[in-house]
């Protein structure tokens, strides 16, 4: 397995073994991620964060990951203003970043932007989300959360709930989970159900995903409930939105029917999908999940910069 | 019997065994439908071939095809053969073949794909399947829906 110098563009570029290796390295990073142990393995290294789209979690956790390894993160205040408006190509922006940093994380609204960036950079590019495309580090932290909470990924029954049509998080995750041999349930209103391409992709594993529009069908069965946001903009009628969103809200009543050790995940930020009263239950793992972004990104940075093997 | 429906050409290229009806797409690929084109071209459509199926033939005088043009022809006429004519004889003959990666010959149909911005890259599509032809954009990872219309 060779990670040094590698780009992190799409979850599909990684085999199951490679992804598992990343998760194992991430586990070792947890104490340093919590600030309980010092790790200086990336001292003197620089990460450039180029975000053409706002993001709190991804950007903060990358910056935190880099600092926790003794490195530094630099970023543009607002690339929208600084380069795009001046008509600079992404290719040029990336070549500039390459000359200032050892690794670049890019978020962009166009699909495939990170792969394009990688063509123009000899130094590694990490895809921090490319529009409706890929967000591989999110997928890896999701896998890490399931793995650490459940002990293994294979055989877990995982329900993905919410806007499965447009949600890139759900797309990449379903691919990765099926690769790992999890059993998938796609729970969404018919108009927001998984695109056929993604369902086909999810058959890379041995088990076919099951599709339903009713959360009640699966709540008693699953080990993991992965909730995503249903966006208002998808509905022409605000009342219809209210009605549909209500059907998928996770609250204490719903959790009564769940397995004792079922965990609830959410990529955050949430709106109304999960009632705040759920936060205090042992089911709620979304804040741990958000924290997990740090050790996973530490692992990736350390691996591609050659600080660990 | 030698099938010569049109007058022989001295030098140039004969594109033979084009699926019936696809000759016009081939002409478009070769830029022959452009006003600026000065190639002399003859076209025979729905000719009965030896295998007694119908085919189209395009003959272009004094011109050899570029690699990219041949790649494009392979997308609309996977059965075509290219015959290079020199001094009235078939000097060279080969079947068109889909490349593993179709580079710089198609526009991605996804408006949100980075290749549709003004970036200095050629589009790239991996051939997922050859029969029927299915292509996937290397950048946005979406499958190209309308291949013929996407040819640039
Ligand atoms: N000098 C020429 N001018 C115009 N067309 C020609 C000339 N020589 C050959 N052709 C055409 O080029 C094609 C290939 O010629 P060839 O003699 O190899 O025929 P063939 O044996 O039928 O080949 P194939 O097996 O590929 O069908 C035919 O369509 C033929 O009519
Ligand atoms: Mg013949
Ligand atoms: Zn594309």
Structural commentary:
- The complex is a heterodimer of chains A (about 300) and B (about 150).
- With about 300 residues, chain A is α/β, with parallel strands linked by helices.
- Chain A has helices at about 15-35, 55-70, 80, 90-100, 115-120, 135-150, 170-180, 195-200, 215-220, 240-245, 250-255, 285-305; strands at about 45-50, 70-75, 105-110, 125-130, 155-160, 185, 210, 225, 265.
- Chain A has a five-stranded parallel β-sheet with strand order 7-6-5-8-9.
- In chain A, helix 1 (about 15-35) packs across helix 6 (about 135-150), helix 1 crosses helix 12 and helix 6 crosses helix 7.
- The model of chain A has no long low-confidence stretch (mean pLDDT about 95).
- By secondary structure, chain B is an alpha+beta fold.
- Chain B folds into two domains: about 10-95, Aspartate carbamoyltransferase regulatory subunit, N-terminal domain (Alpha-Beta Plaits); about 100-150, Roll (SH3 type barrels), CATH 2.30.30.
- Helix content of chain B is about 15%, strand content about 35%.
- Chain B starts with 11 loop residues before the first strand and ends with a helix.
- The chains are: A alpha/beta (about 300), B alpha+beta (about 150).
- Chains A and B meet through helix 5 of A and loops of B.
- Bound molecules: adenosine-5'-triphosphate (ATP), magnesium ion (MG) and zinc ion (ZN).
